[in-house]
Amino acid sequence: MSHAPLRLTALKPVHWLLLAVVALAMFLPGFAGIPPFDRDESRYAQASHQMLESGDFVDIRYQDEARHKKPVGIYWLQSASVSLLTGGAEHGPIWMYRIPSLLGAVAAVLLTAWTAARLFGATAGLLAGLALASTVVLGVEARMAKTDAVLLATILLAQGVLARVWLDRDKPIAPSLGLTLLFWLGLGLGILVKGPIILMVTGGTILALWGMERRAGWLKRLRPATGLPLLLAVVLPWLIAIGIATKGEFFTYAIGHEFLGKAGTGQEGHGAPPGYFLATFWLSFWPWPLLALLSVPWIWRNRADDAVRFCLAWIIPSWLVFEIVTTKLPHYTLPVFPAIAALMAAAALHRFSRSEVRKPWLLALAGLLFMVVTLAFAGAIAGFPWQLTQSVSPLALLAGAVILATGSLVLGLEAGREPNRLLAAGLGGAFATYLLVHGLVLPGLSPLWLSPQVQAAVQANRTCPGTVLAAAGYTEPSMVFLVGTRTRLGNGAMVAEHLAADPACALGLVTTGPEEELFQRTLAGAGLADKGLVAVRLVELSGFNYSRGKPATLHLYRLGPAAP
Questions:
Q1: Three-class secondary structure assignment of 412-425
Q2: pLDDT given for residue 455 in this prediction
Q3: Residue 562: per-residue pLDDT
């Protein structure tokens, strides 16, 4: 028996509350329990911490290095979050730095519903928001002290207004000034968070719409004469300040190396060929990629519809740019996921409310791809603890079973035309998956979290209030964030020299192997034995350095008196 999906005439306060509650349920497991991730999250958090330490809210620094990769927006938000939650203290736990990402992700869910409701109706808006909230990629970004969740919210603010103006372009009454100023505010905030990415998405949408109709007069309804000054008021003060502070070096690095450099080379080992995002979409958009692929026939039939055209103009240009750019990471296509969710919701409503003839081959192909990815996802989660510790994790096995069951239910309920149960299965399965994976499995994998081990060892063996750690071999940003800005990073010789320079207080950390051998040779040549001092090994730490993809054993040293 088939059941038509519930139809809404308008989104009411209870629906907005539902969206926020579902989003928080998806995002909060593990939010505070997962230690700082390497490397990007920890670099962002450390740079924000240093703003509070130094009182310099213009220049962005990671230890003594200039961090001129992104504009200042996310650092201001993280610094403000920590300052408000700690009452002005300079440091706070990593979850405080993640608050802007959490709020940005929740705002993105609400703005997706707002935009999709204007495009395809209230029911589609609610479904699109719920679908986006439960995707793997947004759940990851909501838990990361990075730019992408906040950027998505700013993009949706601009794109939501643009959609409204596009759909109403031939109506006699222009949109209100307040609405159009939201477009320019969104652009300004997006630039301040991640530079020109928002201009690429919104500009690509506008160019694609112009290419479809060959007219651009409707853009006057955005009131650029009023809105552009607002955009400049948002971005120019800091751009001028950072330009003066760095003598223009920020723009040289941020644009020349960071932005344009990613287009031509795979930075930090993240290069991939075109087609990468089509492949990773099946996991990034889980548990809904099956429904997205099944939406293609409906999208093709309705490609002349204004709302469909807007979504296609939103998706295609940006997706092509992301595929062409050499540097690739799975979250790069997140800015177009709301449009995919909106199209998917509209197509699903049509598919389930009408007894249309399906294409069995499409369901079979989509189902096969979906289950292959689901099985791989389940296997990876269930098997990762064994790879890491050579021990079975019952929670990881349960998480793998939940992932597999969720995929099977989604496929079976889609084939059986059960939309309401399908939605419940997808949302419930996603929540259970994230509760287990983020809330229980990942925080419990102690070998994965070497930096918290280092932090605990340093605190237990600190002999002076101003003790500084020097480290060689293991130099991850999460360690700097947890142990302190003054942490010194270098090779084994530097660690030895650090201990020799402050025998009473200094601590040294080296990885076993070449760095420890260099450390010992340098100490032997420093004449410390003549002073009655030797290197005392305090702790041995072991785990898996996932940034380098290999196990690591660390030894913590201080200088002490030689045994008589």
A1: HHHHCCCHHHHHHH
A2: 98
A3: 74
